[in-house]
Structure formats: C-alpha cells, structure tokens
Amino acid sequence: MEREVEIIRSVVYDFTGKTALITGGASGLGLATAKRIVESGGNVVIADYSDKLAEVAADIKKEFPNGNISYIKTNVTSEDDVKAAVEKAVTEYGELNMMVASAGIGGANNAIADESLDNWEKVNAVDYTGVMLADKYAIMQFRKQGKGGAIVNLASMFGLVAVPTNVAYSAAKGGVVNMTKAAGVAYAGEGIRVNCVCPGVINTPLVPEDQKQAYRDLHPMSRIGEDFEIASIIAFLLSDDSRFVTGAALPVDGGYTAA
Ligand SMILES: NC(=O)c1ccc[n+]([C@@H]2O[C@H](COP(=O)([O-])OP(=O)(O)OC[C@H]3O[C@@H](n4cnc5c(N)ncnc54)[C@H](O)[C@@H]3O)[C@@H](O)[C@H]2O)c1
Question: Which residues pair with 101 in a beta bridge?
C-alpha cells in the first residue's frame, strides 16, 4: 500500500557519536528507525536474519552517504547471536548507547483453543524471548560503560488490548510491555532507560496487504500508520529529550486503544 501521509520530520535529533543496535532493522519499523538515526548523525548496526541485509545497508548508505551503517546476520532467538551483535557494535564504533528491539513476526492467527504449541513457541521465541535477550545484552554493555543508555522495545497496541484471534502475539506483546516496566525500574538508578512503543497497525511488510483496508476502518483516525510515524517516537524515546521517561508503554495507534 502506498503511503497515505507525507513524511514529516518537524524535530531534528542529534545522535552524533552515539551507536544504536537495531534488531529487525532490515525492514519496516526497524529500517525506518535505522534511517532516522543515521540521518541524525548516529552510528547504526542492523541485526537481522534477513538475506537482504547487505542490500538494505547499501541502500541506506546511498541515501545518507555520510552515515555510518553496519550489519550482522543475527537470529534474535539465539543468545550467542545477540551477544555477537552487541560485540559487533562495540568493536565497530567503540561503544553501544542505544538498542531498538524491533525483530518480530506475526505468527498464525489462532484463538487459544486452536493454538498449536509449534506456533506459540515460534512467536514467543522471537517476539518475547528475542526482546529479553536484546535488552539483556544491551544493558550488560551499558553497565560496563557506566554512562547509561536507552532501549526502545517494539511492543504493540495488541500488548495493551488483545487481538483475540492471535493469542501468541497478544501474549508476547503483553509480556514485552511488562518486561519493559521491570527493566526500566531495575536500572532507573543507573541512567539506563527502557521504554516500549505500542504501535497500531502500520503500513509495513508484516501486515498482509489484503488486511490493511479492514484495519484502516478500525482506527479512529480512519487510516493505518506509516513507518516513519513510529520511528519519530522511537527517536524521541532514545533521545535525551525523554530523559525522565522510563518503564513507559506508549501507544502510537491513531487513538485505537483510547476508544
Ligand atoms: N507493522 C505493524 O503493524 C506493527 C504493529 C505493532 C507492532 N509491531 C511490531 O514492530 C516490530 C517490527 O515490525 P515490522 O512491521 O517492522 O515488521 P517487518 O516484517 O517489516 O520487519 C521485521 C524484521 O524482523 C526480522 N526478524 C524476524 N524474525 C527475526 C529473528 N528471529 N531474528 C532476527 N530478525 C528477525 C525480519 O527479517 C524483518 O526484517 C515487530 O516486533 C512487530 O510485532 C508492528
């Protein structure tokens, strides 16, 4: 689906000298965030299991020739892979300052009585355990550096209200919301902030094209969101402008969860 609204960037952030690791950065919300950070002077390492990693990084470099962009093939369900991704960021750029945990899958649309253990475990491995591993290794690195750090997890509005026809996704995203609160409070005294965004339905490859129209009608704004509209909020939560915000779960959903 074509974008319904034009890209706007009314706020300019300065991430010069800061390094972000972005899981799931090869597509959708992670990719939009990668571009926003590179454009704002930050260094970005994309950690994704996509075969298009090199192509995606080359495209970002073409769009922002002065930007620093690297990548590492990563499966976020593997502890060794996530650890290696953090090490890559540190080796490449000296330290890690920001983590965006955006790798995710939708899984099968099953209500609980129809759920298979296979689908449940697949979805939770990526959408729940994968976020925990990303946060864990980022926080370990932040603590080593002793200068704080900022994490943004991709939860979903379906972590705040359920989608009854997808129990695994609802459970995983609800878990990410509460994991974010637990981590945010645990490290608040060390200058490490952990927040999550709870997007409504956004126009990315995750959402099947044939479902986008139906979803438009469910949002009070009568449209779905665009990737850059989430990237802007992520950039805000990574920036020092939000330095008194931690453990927050911020809906960015055109009013869906307020209705
Ligand atoms: N698009 C939406 O409507 C929407 C709404 C709410 C929340 N979210 C969440 O935002 C995040 C990003 O979604 P998106 O719309 O950008 O999806 P997307 O499909 O466009 O991108 C997801 C990326 O994650 C990567 N990925 C998937 N599994 C992985 C794994 N095991 N290891 C490493 N990388 C893996 C994919 O290769 C892909 O590049 C997800 O967590 C999703 O649940 C999306």
Answer: 23, 153
